[in-house]
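Dear H.,

Thanks for agreeing to be a second pair of eyes. The structure we're designing against is below in token form, covering all 878 positions.
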């Protein structure tokens, strides 16, 4: 470390990485944006924030309804051999105005055979793109109830997925499962497919007699048809729901059941999973149901709660009403915990049964009312189950992820009507920022008022569709507070306060002068923020906390004290979504590291102590000693983890020895951080020996996998041979091989390109293929012809996530020869996320081609949009 500066003027940096397999790993893929694949960047190259959206983005308003959908009856046959669906969709509707003479029903890529009235009278119809227009025999009004039965058939490319073994994956199960969010249900049955209406539903699903059917609501009965070797399952959902929450899952499953009072809690898993693995993943479910019912103030409202683990699921989980669908990758072995536990995924999807299912956003611009709430309630369960420190640290990590998106990709309001496809909005602004905004409301109002207000909001809007203003009004009704200012700042606007703080102690007057400035660039999107904040002051006499109000660009606060403060903490529990620059000396930071009551404050102090460009060399031993003490003595795993990450930046012999001791930590997350930190000790033989021992002896496969990657990153002697051996080692979910492939890519030896490329092939484990794609890009480099050809060929791969990774790689690798193939994907791919990724990759390639750049932009919104949407283009990009 170099430099001799006595103070450290560094930004509060949130550097905790996204957990490996716990917190909605696949949900982040929803937005379909480009993810960095790790190509080397030129010195001084900075990631820049670009506009949100792509070349096809526009402003959307809530869809206008002409009728209310009251009830749906599906009578369908699901044929796994022909990958087809056929049958009828019976819709009961009530017009919302007089003289309705046509019914517009959503239907895409389905063959419509007929539309009939209950007496069998056929009705004329037209099919126009994704609309089915049915002509009624006479105009109808709000007092009329209309029932239409639509006969149809089709081979859906989305909405309903058929999973089956093939020559490359002979062990893949036979399964059929639906995925309706955002508007894909109408690809497998005709229906009104937008979230601003709710209907009761029932389904008669005829399938091969060897299979089980799981769907929404209550199982009414099962009828056997021996002559055709089929069964018909009748499921009925009696609480109205938006149609994207309609679910059917077909296949062979092991079923395990918990009982919570009269409520059956069901777990469906692939055959051979076993009870131990099943309960390891889903064990928190009954306790979480009980906790949510009590805390939200509404008992679990449905007749059962089922969780079904399916193969090749395109998300991490989906909160279908009363019957959540999850990826089977959430099933894991005991040795992989706690990194791979399913707690956050399970509790997130469960929270949706209230927020998202019982109350549903009326328009996709308000999707944070579903996803931000579910993320927040998962955090609140973590607080209940594991304590306040875990809750605060979880939110701290979420702030890190949101700030990364804001700084490196784009900035947008949380309520945003500007997008190409609604899935564009399923991002860190919606999930993480949504949770953080709710926690800030909790901070401002206090627990009693806040949770009472949430209960009022849920009770007042149960079985309804909602927009953000419904939340504001309910919270104002409950608390008597004017909260318009808060919602204007945090949901209609974007960004966050960027604080610069300085302190000065006046010994004569015994007053601490604290100056706080908001330094964010103000524009139509980013305001000057008005927020309360706590200031914690520690002197020899003890600790006091003061609440201040911030509302101006620069303001000063004076605090009379009994003596010079030992520690000054702004926003000590990190309750605000912000960044902070606050100069502190090394001694002040060490004091904070050792005495701060907040885990987030300890993590921040740990990070600041390792800022290389500001650290005096003579203070390094003192810093290492302080970090070592925390690494081995702090009771909270996240603080120990942060200390390990800081020691990695210091890289002295004493730092290495401290990390060596941490390899015996009882928490796998800390051991993983320590072995990752040792990877920073370039060509250090002692560090390499330690890491090799971890690889050979640690029972946690994720820690062993991290060790393999660290061998590559430290350029240890014999690293290549070591990694080639690691490629032969099997492990739970192939994690060691995946990390070894990443390590081979980091070594950059082009002779390994063919070997790594072989792991991209169809037939290899999915996540292993993704790791191999990242690595061939590194081994080949930008514009490498064989890498280009390999990636372009993989654009036709049937695996959704492989396509996403390949598209990102083609854009990042500047493969101009891929433009025609990407253009075809952007036009024809059924999944909107893949289409959007292809468009972004094309625009990236165009921008890097001289004279052919295309500029992102956001036009003025049309008149009539809410004030929240009235703004020009701003700097933002995903």
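And this is the sequence the design step returned. I haven't edited it by hand at all.
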């Amino acid at each position: 470390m170099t430099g001799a500066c006595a103070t450290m003027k560094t930004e509060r940096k949130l550097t905790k990485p996204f957990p490996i397999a716990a917190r909605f790993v696949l949900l982040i893929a929803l937005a379909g944006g480009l993810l960095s694949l790790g190509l080397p960047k030129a010195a001084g190259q900075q990631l820049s924030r670009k506009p949100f959206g792509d070349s096809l983005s526009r402003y959307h308003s809530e869809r206008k309804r002409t009728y209310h959908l009251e009830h749906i009856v599906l009578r369908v046959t699901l044929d796994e051999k022909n990958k087809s669906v056929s049958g009828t969709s019976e819709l009961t509707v009530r017009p919302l105005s007089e003289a309705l003479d046509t019914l517009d029903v959503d239907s895409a890529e389905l063959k419509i055979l007929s539309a009939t009235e209950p007496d069998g009278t056929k009705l004329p119809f037209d099919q126009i793109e994704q609309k089915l227009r049915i002509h009624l025999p006479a105009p109808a009004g709000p007092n009329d109830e209309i029932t239409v039965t639509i006969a149809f058939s089709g081979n859906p490319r989305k909405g309903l997925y058929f999973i089956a073994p093939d020559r490359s994956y002979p062990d893949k199960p036979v399964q059929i499962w639906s995925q309706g969010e955002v508007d894909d249900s109408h690809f497998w049955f005709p229906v009104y497919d937008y979230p601003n209406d709710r209907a009761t539903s029932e389904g008669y699903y005829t399938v091969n007699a060897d299979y089980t059917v799981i769907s929404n609501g209550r199982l009414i009965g099962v009828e056997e048809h021996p002559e055709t070797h089929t069964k018909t399952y009748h499921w009925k959902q009696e609480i109205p729901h938006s149609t994207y929450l309609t679910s059917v899952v077909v296949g062979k499953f092991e079923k395990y059941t918990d009982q919570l009072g009269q409520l059956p809690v069901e777990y469906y898993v692939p055959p051979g999973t076993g009870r131990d693995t099943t309960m390891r993943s889903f064990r928190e479910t009954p306790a979480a149901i009980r906790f949510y019912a009590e805390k939200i103030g509404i008992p679990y409202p449905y007749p059962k709660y089922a969780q079904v683990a399916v193969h090749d699921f395109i998300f991490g989980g989906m909160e279908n009403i009363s019957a959540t669908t999850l990826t089977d990758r959430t099933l894991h072995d005991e040795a992989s915990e706690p990194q791979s536990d399913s707690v956050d995924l399970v509790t997130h999807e469960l929270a949706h049964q209230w927020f998202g299912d019982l109350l549903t956003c009326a328009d996709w611009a308000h999707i944070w009312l579903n996803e931000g709430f579910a993320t927040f309630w998962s955090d609140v369960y973590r607080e209940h189950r594991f304590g306040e420190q875990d809750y605060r640290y979880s939110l701290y990590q979420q702030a890190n992820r949101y700030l990364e998106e804001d700084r490196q990709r784009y900035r947008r309001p949380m309520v945003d009507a500007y997008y190409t496809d609604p899935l564009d909005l399923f991002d860190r602004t919606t999930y993480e920022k949504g949770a953080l905004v709710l926690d800030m409301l909790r901070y401002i109002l206090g627990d009693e008022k806040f949770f009472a207000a949430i209960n009022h909001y849920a009770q007042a809007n149960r079985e309804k569709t909602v927009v953000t203003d419904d939340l504001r009004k309910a919270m104002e009704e409950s608390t008597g507070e004017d909260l318009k200012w808060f919602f204007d700042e945090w949901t209609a606007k974007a960004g966050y306060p960027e604080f610069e703080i300085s302190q000065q102690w006046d010994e004569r007057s015994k007053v601490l002068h604290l100056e706080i400035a908001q330094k964010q660039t103000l524009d139509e999107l980013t305001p000057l923020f008005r927020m309360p904040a706590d200031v914690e002051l520690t002197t020899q006499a003890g600790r006091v906390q003061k609440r201040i109000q911030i509302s101006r660009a620069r303001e000063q606060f004076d605090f009379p004290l009994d003596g010079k403060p030992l520690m000054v903490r702004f926003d000590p529990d990190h309750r605000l979504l912000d960044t902070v620059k606050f100069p502190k000396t090394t001694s002040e930071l060490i004091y904070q590291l050792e005495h701060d009551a907040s885990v987030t404050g300890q993590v921040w102090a740990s990070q600041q102590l390792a800022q290389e460009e500001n650290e005096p060399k003579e203070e390094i031993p003192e810093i290492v000693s302080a970090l070592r003490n925390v690494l081995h003595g702090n009771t909270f795993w996240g603080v120990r983890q942060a200390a390990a990450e800081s020691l990695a930046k210091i890289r002295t012999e004493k730092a290495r020895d401290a990390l060596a001791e941490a390899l015996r930590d009882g928490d796998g997350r800390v051991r993983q951080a320590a072995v990752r930190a040792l990877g920073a000790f370039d060509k250090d033989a002692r560090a390499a020996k330690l890491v090799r021992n971890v690889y050979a002896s640690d029972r946690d496969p994720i820690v062993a996998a991290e060790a393999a990657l660290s061998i590559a990153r430290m350029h240890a002697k014999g690293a290549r041979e070591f990694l080639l051996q690691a490629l032969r080692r099997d492990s739970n979910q192939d994690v060691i091989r995946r990390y070894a492939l990443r390590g081979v890519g980091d070594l950059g030896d082009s002779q390994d390109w063919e070997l790594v490329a072989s792991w991209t092939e169809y037939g290899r484990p999915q996540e292993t293929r993704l790791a191999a794609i990242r690595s061939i890009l590194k081994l080949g480099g930008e514009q490498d012809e064989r890498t280009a050809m390999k990636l372009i060929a993989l654009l036709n791969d049937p695996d959704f996530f492989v396509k996403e990774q390949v598209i990102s790689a083609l854009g990042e690798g500047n493969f101009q020869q891929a433009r025609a193939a990407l253009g075809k994907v952007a036009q024809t791919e059924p999944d909107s996320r893949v289409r959007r990724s292809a468009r972004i990759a094309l625009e990236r390639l165009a921008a890097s081609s001289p004279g052919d750049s295309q500029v992102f932009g956001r036009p003025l919104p049309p008149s009539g949009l809410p004030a929240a949407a009235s703004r020009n283009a701003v700097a933002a990009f995903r």
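Two observations from my side: The CA atoms of residues 435 and 754 lie 44 Å apart. The domain at 497-576 is CATH 2.60.40.1840 (Immunoglobulin-like).

Warmly,
E.
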